[in-house]
Batch of 4 targets.
Target 1
Amino acid sequence: MIRTSISSWLAVRCASVLIGAALVLPTWVLAQDDLEGDALDEAVAVRQQGNVEGQESQKRIDSVSAETESLFTRYQNALAQIDSIRVYNKQMEDLIAYQETEIASLRDQVDRVELVSRSVTPLMLRMIDAIDKTVQLDIPFLENERTERIKDLHTLMGRADVSNAEKYRQIMEAYQTENEYGRTIEAYRSTLTLGGAEVKVDLLRFGRIALVYQTLDGTESGVWNQQERRWESIDSSYRTAIKEGLKIARKQTAPDLIRLPLPVPARGGQG
């Protein structure tokens, strides 16, 4: 009987405990859920904050990376410019060295030119004097033109703005012109003093061999006597030949043989 009572009591006691535990369980579970919810919210907040900080960090990283890349590009450009400047400086050094050599050469040439000029100038003056003497002793054709040419050469020699090379060139050109007179024929009109009067005539030059004239009406003809340095009249038998020679010189007719009076060479004395 006593065992039965104890057993009954124990059963009732256990049931009470279980009922009490059942009553207490929902409150603990709810508390646990609240704690987990808070922890989850905090974790989400931390995660979100981490994401924000991560984005900001990434932005800073991107900014630093872009700045680094820009600096690196500028550095490379600076190196390229330095290389270009080195090449340019080397070229300039070579150019300056070449110019210094050229300057030294030019100075040497100038010194030599000055030396040569001191020798060339008297030579050119003698050449002009020789042309002048030739014109004075030559048969009197184109006297005004040839005299003016010599006068221009003397004026040229006194000009400081004309180089010696140009002066020499013009002197040689005058020599060439005088040389051409010896192998050409020429007809031109001029005025001669004949018998104390000035007469317009046609002059015909055959090289330096003969110089003849004929009045415009063809009635009078003459030849220059080089030995006596004067004009001499010739007979009318040369009238037609002189007219033909004038036409040939003026290219009005084809070249042909003509008969002209020629000066007789002077005979040398016998010892």
Target 2
Amino acid sequence: MFPSNHVAATVIVYGFLAFLLARRVGMLAGVLVAAASTIVVIVVALAGVYFGRYWLSDAIGGAALAYAWVALVALTAMWRHPQAPPPRTFMPAVVLAVTLFSVGVQLGVDPPAPPASAPRAAPVLVTQSEWTLSLWKRLPCYRSDMGGDRKEPLTLQWVSDLDSIRGQLRAQGWVEGTDVSAHSLLSLASPDVAAVSLPVLPKLNNGVPSSLVFMRPGDTRAERDVLRFWPSGYAVANGNTATPLWVGALAHERLSRPTWPINILRVDRQAAAFDARGKPGAGSGAAILAKVDCHGVPVSLLASPVE
């Protein structure tokens, strides 16, 4: 949500704290205090963007409004009390010690395990006919983020193991998503970068991270397709074996050039349909068992050939 309340609250807390400390220490220590508070805000904002809690524009908007409020209150306080308070050179060290102690206490407390880190239950076994006739209706039509908001549609339900999916996607020209690294992060500010060079940010579905992420170039350098898969909690029985059932989302992302020097990829709602057929000479692709309608979302039911 624009602006980000989370980032705004962080700026207000650490901004006021930096203001109070900077007035009670020397110039050099004040610069260090301001730099430390800024680093904390940047780390919190980037963490939220990284885990998909909000967009970069939401973080920038929340930080800008909060910094304006902190500046207004700080200027008012200095106008009403222009005389600097007595120096307290030990205060930054005390605040740092208290902050580190509180962080240590929180890390030492065992909170209830979130759904993403809790031990996963064994998948529920179903037959192929049960899946194609009724089970697909009970699976979600859209991906849900951490806030429960509905995101891009889940247009694929694929019965296969991950190695088979990797092999078939690679045969069709897909490559595994770029990991977040120093090089990929620097590409976020590059003036002439291809969309496939940017990192593929992780996305959660009901708190569960995607198990597999692939991408391929689009029609231009500023476009790319991203395909993500999450476990459905079901498996299709085939004799004495059971094959996992995955739900997938295909997103067509377009590079938003007007936002440079920060390159942002935005999801194009008009994503192309996924082609499950293999390329000539690259082996057989997945079989499309059915194409169904999930509350207006076209969903393809796929099954990889049994080896």
Target 3
Amino acid sequence: MSSPAEVPIPPDLSRRYSGSSAGRAWLASLHGLICGRLERWELEVDLEPGQLPWNGHGGVVVPVTREGVPAALKVAYPHDEARVERFALRLWDGHGAVRLLESDAGTCSMLLERLDAGRSLQEVPLETAVEVWGGLTRQLSLAPDHRPEWQEFDHVAARAEQWSDDLPADWEQLGRPFPRWLLEAALEVCQTRGAVGRRAGTDVLVNTDFHYLNILARPGNAWSDGFAAIDPQPMIGEAEFTVAPLLWNRIRDLPRTDPQQGLLDRCRDFSAAAGLDPEIARQWSLAREVENALSYASRAHHGGDLARSLWVASTLAGRTLEGLPAAHDLPAPGEAAGLAVSPS
């Protein structure tokens, strides 16, 4: 077992946060933050010598034990999504999501149930993933109640209203990186769903980053059951908002004969498994991918990510853009991608 002094920081996490003064300050403090939580929560590091802790985009996860029981210590870079994660986990209380054992707002740290980091929904056949995801979504879609945690979450309808202002301004500022009709399709969704979402009375707790890699198996369970959500990005609103990440991930698993229809079928199948409206899910997914496309267009070296977002968004809109790579040539999220994009 490693000692606290030997807990290494994953290199890709160091690279990600070394580009800003705030990021470098956090990296410099990270060892102290980890040691402080180990001492405060009476934890033992459970890493073999030379083994790296796990990490995602925004934090490090150290396998630990407490009184011999496996757990995971997560220390996140302090940002809005990390600050509200613990509130959602408290509400779910281990039902459909990883169980929260301890949390500390000041250090953006949590002690979590240990899941099997090597067994995510990314590896299971899609027909199994549909059923697992649908069942978890039903569990996670809590209706608001009197508990104070609900006051911490933004509303999906408010996000749509913000996009109604931001998307056209960003599209102009970025030199109109895709055709106007696709922008207008997203704005129609924002205006329609934003207004409906405000008055429909169907608000639930929504995990907006609920994709295959963010669903891990509980140790000892078969592939077909015992999964739980990790790294939630919670909001309140229409549950259909949660479908989009399933569509921009695992694109290479779409049928080669007709990937466009395969994408629409996937939206329908996952929606049905969770008891959601597939048309509302399609609309929200379209708008979310247009917003993603503008975000990628604003950054250098993200041509492949931009191409993927444009392919998904325009396909959901019923008119796949020309000039994009074939669906099975699009990069997965997180892959290095320098593809040229000339949508028309």
Target 4
Amino acid sequence: MEFFFEVLVGGLLAGVMYSLVAIGFVLIYKASGVFNYAHGALVLFGALTFVSLVERHIAPWLAFAITLAALVLIALAVGQLVLRPLVNRAPIVLFMATLGLSYILEGAAQLLWGAQVHGLDLGIDDKPLAIAGVMVSQFDLFAAATAGVLVAALALLAKTTRFGLSLRAVADDPLAALAIGVRLPRIWATVWALAGFTSLVAGLLWGARLGVQFSLSLVVLKALPVLIIGGFSSIVGAIVGGLLVGGTEKLAEVYVGTALGGGIENWFPYVLAMLCLLARPVGLFGEPAVERV
């Protein structure tokens, strides 16, 4: 049982980091109905910019501030110049726009900082820590705590503040929200700035875990099952979906993967996502669209 709980706790801690990535998608989707595939490229760009500045002997706090400013500016520019004019277009048009943006951002990152792999040290030892007889990585605890605090703060922001109320109004009906005085450009700008911030935090945590390399942008593929299971428009769904994906994929790899030759951790979350699509297409916390006919 101790081994079981070690595997489960490790998976849940990883799931919180999945939620951190997924919540960036949720924020954009709630505000504009856009699935921002370029969010993974923002994660990569943030981590690569930060580590490259630190390697050039810039103080970490200053490198963080510069990187955050760059990501916010990029996010605002993408939202205002590319996606805002396409909001009323077909979903496939919006998806293709963000897909193209992801390659543009990855190319810009490579042009600026090169394509070599970087190690990222946040000063947290990756040593096991015994908690109630269960061995847990210190870095995983730090990463999960950081991600958990940020996710909880964003959830409270969306639920208890005037901005959150405006965001929910925009998500329900943008035209009606505009008619009652909600300033859509301000809401969109704030949401894109928050998405830029979450992408930087996610990039640093995942970069310290996996190394800062171009495959880091593929973390978006880990967030996709989380979004499908939790619901594209729910911050709470992103949290629950991340925990479900993180916990079940680790348990499946350990207890089922040996019988299937291993390696099921990468595709098992998509099995869960497909089952969720069959049972509840909008996700566990998503709301079905209501249209007048």
